[in-house]
Write a structure and sequence with these properties.
single chain; alpha/beta; Rossmann fold; six-stranded mixed sheet; 7 helices; globular
Length: 201
């Protein structure tokens, strides 16, 4: 029984991740709804598709934030295509602000996948991803909030230390794609809580 309990605890520890790190630098006053556009994310260098995954995840999870009116992704994709920014796949802050203004947005979200380690097979550790993002005010150019989240990182070494628990945990652990959605969800949950707290203070 003790061995079984230890196995369950060890497996749980493997998937435990820290909360998203979100810092609100400035908040709009007055309670108005802000029109916000999520722009394409910078992918991890060796994983071009990771940027699209993050872009999709953020575009979905930001819809749950109260006080944001989100620009339709179709309009964003069309404008980015017209501006020929997809050739490099990277949008810098100056370009982001200009795109935001053209879309009539008060804020634009820029982000990047800074780490991407896929889950390959039973002989490799679980997937790990790191994502960063920030909201830029298109009128002032100021950063209103920043966020970062790593999924699958701190306990990866347990895969090798605890055997065969690590083997089972690796096989059943989330994929890198799932981790990107988990990270995005965590960021917006934390952001929403902090925004609510700031409004009430």
């Amino acid at each position: 029984m003790k061995k079984l309990s230890l196995t369950i605890i060890s497996t749980a520890l493997l998937f435990t991740g820290c909360a998203a790190d979100v810092m609100i630098r400035r908040m709009a006053t007055g309670g108005e709804t802000a029109r916000v556009a999520v722009l394409p994310f910078k992918p991890y260098p060796s994983k071009p598709a990771s940027g699209e995954l993050a872009y999709e995840a953020f575009s979905t999870h930001i819809l749950k934030i109260k006080g944001y009116s989100v620009v339709d992704r179709g309009a964003i994709d069309q404008l980015v295509k017209e501006q020929k920014l997809t050739q490099t796949g990277v949008i810098d802050q100056t370009q982001a602000v200009e795109i935001g203004k053209l879309l009539g947005a008060q804020g634009v979200v820029l982000g990047a996948i800074t780490e991407y380690i896929p889950r390959k097979n039973l002989m490799f550790p679980p997937a790990k991803i790191s994502i960063t993002a920030r909201l830029i005010n298109t009128k002032t150019g100021e950063v209103e909030w920043t966020a970062s989240k790593t999924c699958g990182g701190a306990k990866r070494w347990l895969t090798w230390l605890i055997w065969p628990v690590g083997l089972v945990a690796t096989f059943t652990s989330p994929s890198a794609e799932d981790q990107i959605h988990s990270a995005s969800r965590s960021i917006f949950k934390t952001l929403e809580k902090k925004m609510e707290k700031n409004r009430g203070s």
